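== Folding the chain ==

***
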Amino acid sequence: MVALAVLFLIALAAGALGGMVGTGSSLVLLPALVMMYGPRIAVPVMGIAAVMANVARVAAWWRQIRWRPVLAYALPGTPAVVLGANTLLSIPQAVVDGLLGVFFLAMIPMRRVALARRWRIRLRHLAVAGVVVGFLTGLVLSTGPLSVPVFTGYGLSGGAFLGSEAVSALLLYIGKIGTFSQLGALSFAVVTRGLVIGAALMIGPFVTRPLVRRTDQRHYALLIDCVLVVAAAGMFIATATH
């Protein structure tokens, strides 16, 4: 009970971060979850919590959701999640984590170059990204930061970005949770922990909504860059510990 209470408090902070920039909750929570329960339990617990967190973000920004990019991204991405969750990696997990870390760092200058040259991601690009990110979502612990440059590159920011990214992530995680259920990974203890942590994560989007509305777009972009740096660091640490 003490461990779960500590995780609840950590999840409150993680939910506030996720509510502000659309991702980052899992980056805060996963190290603690893995340390307390091990990766086999941490992954499905985080999956359940992520579903609940994204439900809250959808509710907070429902009126600003852009459905065309959501469907272009999530429709091909959801079956890719199922495929990824059922696929045995032919390369070591450390290699995947390391490549993701490099990609997260590379996205920082790429986002700025794309903005300066007015590159725009189109719906067809979103579909391709959905397949790639969906497959990776089924394979690894956290791919949340991968969707950030995709949706911001399409031109979304603020509530439109947060709501649209949340719906897409929700659809992907539902596919992942369904696969965990079929594989028998959702025990009573896993579900209980996921619900408790998810409840804390759901508070974040409503607490930070006034801040998002007042945040300048340049400051918002800087926050996203900070999340990408932290995500890359997390992947490199995971690579070193495998």
Q: What stands out?
A: The chain has a mean pLDDT of 79.
